[in-house]
Design goal:
The complex is a heterotrimer of chains A (132), B (314) and C (585).
Chain A (H helix, E strand, L loop, with lengths): L7 E5 L8 H12 L3 E4 L6 H11 L3 E6 L4 H14 L6 E6 L6 H7 L3 E4 L4 H11 L2
Parallel strand pairs in A: 1-2, 1-3, 3-4, 4-5
Chain B lengths: L2 H11 L3 H12 L5 H8 L7 E6 L6 H14 L4 E7 L8 E3 L14 E7 L6 H16 L3 E6 L4 H8 L3 E6 L4 H10 L6 E4 L7 H14 L10 E3 L8 H17 L1 H30 L2 H10 L5 H13 L1
Parallel strand pairs in B: 1-5, 1-6, 2-4, 2-5, 6-7, 7-8
Helix pairs in contact in B: 1-2, 2-5, 4-9, 5-6
Chain C lengths: L2 H24 L20 H4 L17 H4 L1 H7 L13 E5 L4 H13 L5 E4 L3 H4 L23 H7 L13 E4 L5 H14 L8 E4 L17 H18 L6 E3 L1 H6 L4 H21 L4 H4 L3 E3 L8 H22 L5 H4 L2 E2 L17 H14 L22 H17 L13 H24 L2 H6 L2 H18 L31 H21 L2 H15 L7 H9 L4 H12 L8
Parallel strand pairs in C: 1-2, 2-3, 3-4, 5-6, 6-7
The chains are: A alpha/beta (132), B alpha/beta (314), C mainly alpha (585).
Chain lengths: 132, 314, 585
Amino acid sequence: MEQDRNIRVLMAKPGLDGHERGARVLAYGLRDEGFEVIYTGLRQTPDQIAAAVIQEDVDVVGLSILSGAHLAMAGKVIEKLKGQRVKDVLVLVGGVIPEEDIPKLKEMGVAGVFTSGASIKEIAEFIRSHVS
Amino acid sequence: MTKELEDLINEMEEGSVRALARLITMIENREKGWLEVMKAIFPNTGRAHVIGITGPPGAGKSTLTDTLTCELIARDLSVGVIAVDPSSPFSGGALLGDRVRMKEISTMKGVFVRSMATRGAMGGLSLAVRDVIKVLDAFGKDIILIETVGVGQDEVDVVKTADAVMVVCVPGMGDNIQAIKAGIMEIADIFVVNKADREGSERAVLDIRLMLNMSTEKGSLNIPILKTVATKGEGIAELVTNLFEVLESQERETSWREERIREELMSLLDKAIAHHVHVKLGRNSKLDTAVKQVLARERDPYSIVQEMVASFVH
Amino acid sequence: MNEDIKKIAQATNEWKDKVVKPKLKKYKLEESPTRFYTPEDIEEFDFLEKVGYPGQYPFTAGNDPAPRWQVFAAAEAKESTRFEWGAATSSGAGKYAGFGTPEDFRDYLVRMHEMGRNAGPNFAFDLPTQCGYDSDDPRSEGEVGRVGVAVDSLRDFEIVYEAYTGDLDIDKVSSNFTANAQAIVIIALYAALAEKRGIPLEKLRGTPQNDILKEYVARGTYIYPPGPALRLFRDTLVFCTEHMPNFNITSIGGYHMREAGATREQDLAYSMAIGATYLQTGIDAGVDIDSYAPHFTVNAFGGSMEFYKEIAFQRAARRMWATMLKERFGAKNPRSMMLRQMGGAHMGYINATLQRPLNNLTRAVIGGMADGMSGGIPFGAMPPWDEPLGLGHSLEAQQLGHDATRIMIYEAKLGEVLDPWAGSYFMESLTNEIENAAKEEFDRIEEMGGFVAAIENGYVRQAIARSAYERQKRIENLEEFIVGVNCFAGPHELNVMTERSVDDVYSAELLATAGQRKCESLALLKKERNDKDVARTLKDLKSAAGNEEENLMPYIIECVKVYATLQEICDVMRDVFGEYKTGNI
């Protein structure tokens, strides 16, 4: 009874930032691109995000951050995941990210950074090409 | 079975959440080896109690699941939650938003939450959910909650597999009761009027009572109707007491359990045969020929199918 | 149909047949990509009823027959001392700003004063402060001082306001506070500060955002469920009306919903529904509508590059508010019916692009033109062009924004005519259209039982998210164009930048250490204050919170005066009111 593998994506809002437009638009968009999208809602701690990544066994976790706390937040989530031996999940960051911080995020283990103007299709393509 | 798979099962049985989640993915996707997993874990299943939670959108099912889980954890029970949401019929994707309302429990010790999409395959969902329940059972969960909007037949089938079913509704929505009437009333063991601090909660209780009184189902007069305010935790302790009573009474009914196993075997058989047929037909050109014959009105489809079935059985 | 209109209709049809059709045929078009408006579009238009005069009901043509900025324009230019045209808000506070610790923000304000920007503070608070957490709470980690200044206690207000003494004391300047869920605590801090300085409360001027309802559907800094949150709103309304008559009560954040994805019509409908809910709390508390409605303000109705529609939007918003106040709430004072905005029409901060960002200056000018042609201007060309490059506008970008606003006033002379579009067949028809669509959505909310019901059933959140998604799809499907983003973005285009001294505004070094420094000063405060007083006032607050009839404002003032922290106060109320759990996706 083989069927096509459904790629699962966790869309998370870490920290106290309540700007949800990007995260929700992308959640809708990725659903329509054929992904199974799990949305966490606002004010997620790194522990909550890591727990959701593990329990939901997602292929991708998208962190949406517009508060300027992206380095701290992404760092903590990645640390928590590593601490629980989760290595094969694709970590993406979106939001207001100054250009100079992008290399720092990548160094931490973030696979892709998407800022203002990125399209749903572009992100969907990125996920498809990076999830085996 | 591969060594890798064996390790994964061992890890799961030793309490690894990550292994549990991986196995669920495997089973849900029907990945290679899933049957081996099911066979291997079956001896360790049969302990968990399964509770189905259903009701129309906006009734507060997720919040109720969240609060109910807190209460169960407080009673030293471990809990697995399966939250089912529909897949998009157009893209095959899904938006699974139940975790938004399950923040309290997402990192609670002893709780495992998994979102599942219906994935469209007729009859496939309830089988997959039953299998996921077995993994959670083997993992050692005491209680497994399945939460779903009881709209499609598929979702009703899912809830039906539970040991106890609670139907959740809210005051002030007349259509609500109508929606319940249509499909899931017959399977309810408990009715919950959630958001009972709102106007019209008494009315909702009366409406449900009236509906049950008119029912011809056996025992419908004894079905409890409870009031809760999930956001404030009100009425939850009483709900748990009632749920346990239902679970206990069902425990004694061997005939009910036999019936469920019979149903499950039949479903598995149906699926397996259908799969077998698909694989076979995929390999030969008989179907193509048959299509041409029917199109040209040389033969009728009924005789063709009869012939095919005969050939499969031999 | 009257005779004139009949004649025009006939002429229109002839024009369509003889002039338009052949042209369309040439391009093989079924429908014209353009429109031309005639008196037919505003048949039965009653000028006095629909437009009236500036400064008179229904205020379609504007609030002010002689806006101060126009009256004093020449004099200001001759003196050329005042730095910020663009940043002055209707209440007189300065540019929205805030970062780091109270000391950092104080030093920043002093520096701004030295540069000639000496308006009152317009507080941006960091997220922990907005959500009712102290800097030392684990949830605040990484967020302290980040999107605004961290405020934990009265001590912090005392420090920030060290920048405001003498000629700039708080009885002379106006303060704005972007505070919602915890607005009642922030107002209490300001009142307590005044008391300590011996300044009577009635002299305080300023505006708290104090618009909690939009937080549940956009922006997300809520604490309590909507019911208790509205009770806190009522308490601020009643207290301010009685004791702080020169202090505004709320600044309704329609624009925040727009930014979250709401359409123009949704923004208008929801803002009106939110306004109606707040106004009703005063009625229910037995306060005279005309004593508090004049202290209601709106953040800004704006948010797109659609020039004409943003102008019509302003006109429709003013008319709708005025009609609602007069007809539904029975207001008698024209000031109650006047929609007062902190800002005005503008391009929408979300429409600033990261790609070729200097283009945002052009965009801001277009938004500013819409503002100037719809009763605004002081808000002018906003935001500064470097808005999407990260938090903190550079001084250079601010300079260009201010200059653009000045150019609109002095060189383009936009302010010489009031409501220049009044009577335009097109603009009047568009204004009606927007108002009618908003009314329809407003009625839908009313049918659900009002805005709180529409929060609880998830309707508004979902409606906004759907609109946001629809727009994104239009952009991706090239049904809507953004220059430099989804078109004209080839390798042959040039990126153009100017120098930015953003470091001078918010120091990265200070930001990096703000959390640690704030936690240290908070620990010190907790050591120095009298814990018994804190415990006593918090206990009093708790028992008052349990009684719906009590006004919590005086209790909270007592708490802050003995240096109870923001979170200690919010936690007491969390205990009594519970916390809001978000709705749906």
